[in-house]
Amino acid sequence: IFILFVCMFGFGLRSQTYTYSSPAVPITDNAATYQLIPLSISTNNAPMNSTFGVVSVMVNITHTAVGDLYLALISPDGTFIDLSVLRGGTSNNFPATVFNSSAGTSITAAATPYTAGPYAPEDHLGNFNLGSTSTGIWNLLVWDLIGGDVGTVNSWSVTFSNTPATPQLWMSSGCTIKLPVSPMNFYDEGGPTGNYYNSTDYQRTICSGNNTCLRVTFTARGLISGGSCLADYLDIFDGQTVNYTSPSQWVGSVCNTALVCKAGTAGVCTAASNTVTSTTGCLTFLFHSNGSTV
């Protein structure tokens, strides 16, 4: 009876870790787009849900300024979870750093170096555990967005358990973030290297499809705003229309060099990671510049 009990106990706490370990991948400095480091999982056909799913992720990265890096994990069905977005400043390395959504310290508030984890990631790992299969290609997304420092992805792993992270879907539609087929970059009239024009007013709406959410990440911000956000500005609306009277629609603005989020927009507008995530599947941008260059 004792042996049977032990076997059942061991099975009940089963855990499976899958690891990418070679070859090491050099990280492109100040890259125009992200890199994907794939990990194939073919032996685990269980659906990810409340009884078995993702519980943690480990990254082992050598880098001389980890604040340059955007890290995310992408599941076989394309669900996209941010791990760390430009965190850590000039601190060195993610030394086998573990991300676990039940951790008491978030990566957004953690002290460097990142050796005292686990840390809760930017987004919730439980949002992988909504019924899709774990079998297929998982990808660690790495994007170096700032020049001057270099590094290498040495290894990374994902751990599944029958005590998985619990989904935390704040979106009423229950949609999840998907990685686009190809990166979509939008520039002002000056393109990727020039300045925007004076006396400009234009509006653009971007919508997603297939019941997926839409997330925009600002990788560069620089507006002449005279300190008041009234000269030049980019206002952001959750939906297909411009509506300054609805607090749920006007979610934030780019002012000077910062994304400024409106009160009550937590989970939609996140200044710390420079992201805006739509709850409607559409984001509308209204850009204005006055007639002056100062």
Outline the fold blueprint:
Layout: H1 2-12, E1 15-20, E2 25-27, E3 35-41, E4 53-63, E5 69-74, E6 80-85, E7 94-99, E8 136-144, E9 151-161, E10 200-207, E11 215-217, E12 233-238, E13 250-255, E14 258-261, E15 269-270, E16 275-277, E17 282-289
Antiparallel strand pairs: 1-9, 2-9, 3-8, 4-7, 4-9, 5-6, 5-8, 10-17, 11-16, 12-13, 12-17, 13-14, 15-16
Q: Would you identify the regions where 5 or more consecutive residues have pLDDT less than 50?
A: 1-13, 169-183
The number of helical elements comes to 1
Kindly name the structural category.
mainly beta
Strand fraction equals 35-45%
Radius of gyration over all CA atoms, rounded: 21 Å
How confident is the prediction overall: mean pLDDT?
80
Strand count, sense and barrel status of the largest sheet are: 5 strands, antiparallel
What's the overall geometry? globular
| End-to-end CA span | 81 Å
Helix content: under 10%
- Total strand segments: 17
Which series of helices and strands comes N to C?
HEEEEEEEEEEEEEEEEE
